[in-house]
Amino acid sequence: MSPSSTHPSDQNIDLNLRTLLRDATHPHHVQLNRHLLLAGLIQPNYSLNHYHTLLGTYYQLYALLEERINAFLKGHPEAFAYDERCKLPWLINDLAYFKIDPLTLPTLSPSATDFLSIETVGQLVGVLYVVEGSTLGGQMISQLLTKNLGFTRDTGSCFFTGYGENTMLFWQRFIAFSDTLTGDKQQCQAAVDAACQTFQLFNQVLDDAAHQGRITVA
Predict the structure, then answer these.
(1) Rounded to whole angstroms, how far apart are CA atoms 115 and 63?
(2) Alpha-carbon distance values, 32 to 27, 45, 83, 145, 160 (Å)
(3) Cα separation of 41 and 23, whole Å?
(4) I need a surface site. Which of 1, 36, 115, 169 has the fewest CB within 10 A?
(5) Biggest alpha carbon distance in the chain?
């Protein structure tokens, strides 16, 4: 997958990296939010079959992403503390609640698994911008899942509940980390490219889930 972002110019490189990331990824973010599997989450009649498909698809996706994140941090442990942010265990908890064995899930397509290797701090920031940003929307989603379907952290909504009341604290810590790259043109561009690729990966994987017939597309 090739990123579809525009390169930060010399004139705007002094903008903080958060602004560059937000502007570059906006169309990808909008596309993702409109995907059937995600847009339906806020509806009271969201299909349980769709929810199971989403959890299974996210399990495969986050297994891939966290493999890449942890591989980089193994060689650069000082770069960022991710241990307390791991999201795969949340998805494992949700799948276990619904008695879904991760080993029975369809694997990601070869094009999806051909995701970028994280080789720089800039690329790490770009991937984490999407991964950590997902916890913000998860707060609203988890509330609606509780209201509409009765799901809670312990009963099928561990992933979307995420950090709970600590969500903004965790997000602010990540933003403070990302902003240390502001002014470094090469690292900022690496972050923008990686963030766009990561959003594209999310969209591709969810599309694959629909096209493979694992959900009934309305």
Answers:
(1) 12
(2) 9, 20, 26, 19, 16
(3) 25
(4) 169
(5) 53
1.20.1250.20, 1.20.910.10, 1.10.10.10, 3.50.50.60: CATH of 17-211: 1.20.910.10
Kindly list the averaged pLDDT for each block of 10 residues, start to end, along the chain of length 218: 42 73 96 92 91 95 97 95 97 97 91 93 98 96 95 97 97 95 95 97 92 52
Task: Go through 130-146 and write b for each residue having 16 or more CB atoms within 10 A of its CB, e for each that does not.
Answer: bbbbbbebbbebbebbb
State the pTM of this model. 0.90
